[in-house]
Design a protein that fits this description.
This protein is an alpha/beta fold. The protein has helices at residues 2-32, 83-90, 107-110, 125-130, 136-154, 156-165, 174-181, 193-213, 231-235, 246-269, 280-289, 313-316, 339-353; strands at 37-41, 113-115, 167-171, 218-222, 274-278, 298-302, 329-331. It has one domain (34-354): Rossmann fold (3-Layer(aba) Sandwich). It has 13 helices and 7 strands. The longest helix has 31 residues, at 2-32. It starts with a helix and ends in a 5-residue tail after the last helix. One of its GO terms (molecular function) is hydrolase activity, acting on ester bonds.
Amino acid sequence: MSSLLLGMRKVFLDMFLVLQLLLQLLRGAAADRVPAVIVFGDSTADTGNNNFIQTLLRGNYTPYGRDFAGGVATGRFSNGRLAADFVSQGLGLSPAVPAYLDPGHGIHQLASGVSFASAGSGFDDITAQIFSAVTLTQQIEHFKEYKEKLRRELGGAAADHIVARSLYLFSVGASDFLGNYLLFPVRRGRFTLLEYEAYLVGAAEAAVRAVYALGARRVRLPGLPPLGCLPLQRTVNLARPGDCNRWHNMVARRFNRGLRAMASRLSRDLPGAQVVYVDVYRLLADMITRPWAYGFENAVRGCCGTGYFETGVLCSLDNALTCEDADKYVFFDAVHPSQRAYKIIADAIVHAASHRPV
């Protein structure tokens, strides 16, 4: 009998230890769960903020949004959702990240994800001013307001948890080059190209440090895409019409090296920070070089209009020419990826989010 009791005691002890281990694992999973995706950036991340400011850079008309739920043009520069939306869904949150400036979204909805991004914005605040967009500095001010709203509505503990555990995504930088330095002479009069690249890396670092000071810890920095291979840049490549602009691609790669080094340095220097660079350049370049490997048929033109130069309001002028199936195209307009391409980019960001940097 005593041996039986000892055996039963051992079984119960083993079960107790297993249950303890399971509880620890569950607590760890709950503690590691991302409660919200918080987004800063430009037209690649603007989920509708520009609909509520005075600017010409809006995507709230057809054919934008034709593959979004209900076929609604929300202000996203895509036929459907953006990378930030898919990142949110991939982390078990909402399939669409709401825009902060949309008065239809209350703080309880924004508590699980919010985009402060504004089409035309950049790391350089002058870029946003050129296009009457919300500057990155102002986006961070909006984040401060958001924090206070969380505290008022949900309480300090809940607000602190959301801010500390959320994933912060910066999708920005292309407009600084294509819409500012390489197009307008404003910054060329003050900086050489190398100096401007260094200035932007410094501005990116200042932005990350600013949100870190406000409580952010998990930050993802997608690099620039191959700028010279955007359909618009192929069209205006006078030296080799139709080909990628190699110089613009070189600029993007060089800037990305600075961004990557900065992210690694901040992860070391800022206690508790996880600042991770995401190599969007290599991924999108591979989609463009080998579109068939990803299920695409066209990586040279956009789906909208002729696909060579249309973006923004120009897309709405050529609805009759717009392609039937945007899923076959890497780009939806002459600058922005299609929904399917954004999904592939988002998968890379989620993968980076699920791995703690060494």
